[in-house]
Amino acid sequence: MLTFAKKKTVAKIGDIDVGNFPLLLAPMEDVSDPPFRALCKEQGADVVYTEFISSEGLIRDAAKSVIKLDIYEKERPVGIQIFGANLDSMLRSVEIVEKTKPDIIDINFGCPVKKVVSKGAGAGILKDIDLMVSLTEAMVKHTNLPITVKTRLGWDHDSIKIVEVAERLQDVGCKAISIHGRTRAQMYKGNADWNPIAEVKNNPRMHIPVFGNGDVNTPERAVEMRDKFGLDGAMIGRASIGYPWFFREVKHFFETGEHLPPPTMQERIEVARRHLQMAIDWKGEKLGVFETRRHYTNYFKGIPDFKPFRTKMVTCDDPADVFATFDEVEQLFGDYQFENAL
Ligand SMILES: Cc1cc2nc3c(=O)[nH]c(=O)nc-3n(C[C@H](O)[C@H](O)[C@H](O)COP(=O)(O)O)c2cc1C
After folding, report:
1. Where would you find the membrane-spanning parts of this chain (predicted)?
2. What pTM did the predictor assign?
């Protein structure tokens, strides 16, 4: 295992200063929407990414894809992530994405799902590194916005060439790379291996930020990624779902070496209310109610005998009923003391 001295360098994505060891909210389908990104930003995320957006959908003006381009001013810097394998579609979608004025355009070269991979997109492109590099180069040349890449270690265990791949992407103008420490073959199984990511960082020719991703689920793990693996920042996915406070907890731990107490019940309810309201304002009542549901389990995790309330939150269709459930929970459990979640 490679070890690195603790260092303090400010990471830059193109001209954007993202601070010393930034925390990035990972792109997550149906999760990393504007309301959730805004909440993570409030809690300390330094850079946030949209979920992946289909280039083919964008160029057909498919409403489902276009709505994913919405961004709030307050969440900047924000990266819009797109995926595809067709050069023309990717370039045309860069033009569409540019109009919505994100700070960064990220290319998804890591999605492992069959319907994406079978078209040569997402992690599918890991089978054709030349195409991965030429697509990136063409996109870099087509925009003034910084292009970043998110990818995996390789297609499978026997074809890990991430050190060479990262260097080639850097050489064609990619401004930062986020690497999920699993192969496509692994999907989400096993543990993420950060050693190959450290090798990328340890390549003396690398000068763009190398962000680590996969299984950063405690502040200690984030410290490990920074100090033991020497990476430039941590991209955080699942640990933040229904728990945007993870970002501030990691930052507090960085600063003090101590765990911040978990958010109080009052704070959780206040955030749940705002989350729902932002989602309704953004997508309307029906979708707003529906898409916030996945977060409630974690917002209120650990409270004994909570099941009937959670069930109400995730089954009520009328926002008034969900808000009423929050009120009820506040009255009944307002004094509940959460144990350290992490
Ligand atoms: C629900 C869900 C949706 C995801 N959607 C995307 C996506 O749209 N784009 C992408 O690059 N990765 C996506 N990922 C992968 C994550 O960005 C991240 O690489 C992975 O979850 C590992 O990080 P973690 O252990 O911190 O969760 C998704 C992951 C999850 C759990």
Report:
1. none
2. 0.96
